[in-house]
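Before going further, learn to read the protein records used in this course. The integers have meaning only within a learned vocabulary of local backbone shapes. To see the layout at work, look at the sequence and tokens printed below.
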Amino acid sequence: MTRPWFETIFDERYPDLFAPLEGDAEEEVEGIHGFLSLPAGAAVVDLGCGRGRHAVPMARRGYRVTGVDISDTMIRMARKYAEREGVEVEWVQEDMRTFCRRGAFDLVLSLFTSFGYFSDAENQAVLDNIGNSLRKGGTLLLDLRNAGKGLSRLEDQDKTIGVPLGRLRMSVRFDRRTMRAKAEHTLERADGIRISSAFDVRIYSMEELMEMLGRAGMEVKDFYGSLTGDPFTDESTRMVTLAIRTGF
């Protein structure tokens, strides 16, 4: 049986295929730190933490951080990063569909489009887990690619960029029936080696997210165009949803 993409993509290839598209994590964490005004020592979980790009800088700022990821490879990379930086982070290898600690966190981070991997019912279960894991008044920061910039118009995309290791080709196709974006990244390295990975993500509208978050016990406070709280427009690169846990 073929394993689902999210069980195979997050391996040693991932940094080569996706790092060129990632933002500056230190700047993003600084933006989150200033934007949310969290209390000192707040409990934070980075859901889908990858190799710790955001979890480690958050811990460096004095937050009590838990990093959760399904990939043992990513967790190993994250643990080594934290050791190099001399910070303590709790690393948990677990599927976000099952990870839940009732009322444990002041902030849940879901960054760099780490949501929408599964079926609608499973994606709702992820949000339910988040809602249950937040303390009353706790915050979810959900960072997705802006569905209003190309995605909601369902425009197929092909783009090739130069990266330090060679040339990276990105192809995106949209299934109009399922509202999922199916993408493939292919890196042609300068040494002639070719690596690729494919993934697909459910694209949710703002209205759908508001309804799903409401079912999970959260209330959307606003949508932003960046992790620093820039105003959200149709041309924003990111769609950052700020939601609050309203009660149990």
Remarks:
- Helices lie at 14-18, 25-36, 55-60, 72-85, 120-133, 147-151, 206-215.
- The chain has two domains: 5-146+204-245, 150-200.
- The domain at 5-146+204-245 is CATH 3.40.50.150 (Rossmann fold).
- The radius of gyration is 18 Å.
